[in-house]
Amino acid sequence: MSFIKQLQASWQSSDSLLCIGLDPDIERFPKSLASGDDNIFRFNQAIIDATHDLVCAYKPQIAYFAALGAEQQLEKTIAYIKSSYPHIPVILDAKRGDIGSTAAQYAKEAFVRYQVDAVTVNPYMGFDSVKPFLDYQDKGVIVLCKTSNEGATQLQEVRLQQAGSNGEPVYEYIAQLVANEWNFNHNCLLVMGATWPEQVAKVRGIVGDMPFLVPGAGAQGGDVGSIVQAGQTADGTGLVISASRSILYASAQADFAEVARVQAEALKLAINRHRNSHAAAV
């Protein structure tokens, strides 16, 4: 099954657009998991078991594992989702982007070593840096477009002056490029930050039903209602709305997984209140 079809099935079966980012920060773990073998995996496992029926995807952020030399625990986390909840897609948040030969190795890392269903990529170096990912036809390639961070405006809002341009900002040009030229295998998605609902609506008009990965709905303060109204497709899907810290670290006590579930369920319900229709009813 292609990633897009897997995601569509997950939207429907879970009646959810919520994605939980797995960003394990051991300094915020409960004391019982502050150290010890496989403590990162055990933290992730508890979160996954507590929330699996509430999400359409999980999104491990590779930096939180690599900084601690915990890549094996990342592999174990992904394998656990695949074996226990195989219907839930796994997105590797890696934001890779390099020359073609190196990009091919990054693609192999994501799709062969880690066995994820999709990966985030940076388009700054152009098509040849993204093509090795696109060539995995059944995998999702999620291209940075309008990111949620405040500093995104420095580059992404710059207006183009090249010949043939209409003076559109860089993020709109990226959206057009991905939709019109790069999506030849129909496996592209865009990263559109929850902190920019007006821009999300603009890009939705450019790319049609292409799915968006939407970070920034939790600790970064993106307004759920605004982003759903701006970015949803006609059937009330089209969005993978990601939250991490606001769910993972809602409690630093032994009840962290139970409290994470409460937070995740509240966010799922808040999202669903603003949808045109629930995926399960489509």
Question: Any key phrases for this structure?
Answer:
282 residues; alpha/beta; 8-stranded parallel beta sheet
What do you see in this structure?
The structure is a single chain. With 282 residues, the chain is α/β, with parallel strands linked by helices. 44% of the residues lie in helices and 14% in strands. The protein contains 12 helices and 8 strands. An 8-stranded parallel β-sheet has the order 2-1-8-7-6-5-4-3, sandwiched between helices. Strand 7, helix 10 and strand 8 form a beta-alpha-beta unit. Helix 5 (100-113) packs parallel to helix 6 (127-134). It is globular. It starts with a helix and ends in a 10-residue tail after the last helix. The model has no long low-confidence stretch (mean pLDDT 94).
Spatial ordering of strands, largest sheet: 2-1-8-7-6-5-4-3
Radius of gyration: 18 Å
Beta content comes to 5-15%
Count of discrete alpha- or pi-helical segments spanning 4 or more residues? 12
Question: Which helices and strands appear, and what pairs or packs with what?
Answer:
Elements: H1 3-14, E1 18-22, H2 39-51, E2 57-60, H3 62-66, H4 71-84, E3 91-96, H5 100-113, E4 118-121, H6 127-134, E5 140-146, H7 153-156, H8 170-182, E6 188-192, H9 197-207, E7 212-214, H10 224-231, E8 239-243, H11 245-248, H12 256-272
Parallel strand pairs: 1-2, 1-8, 3-4, 4-5, 5-6, 6-7, 7-8
Helix pairs in contact: 2-4, 2-12, 5-6, 8-9, 9-10
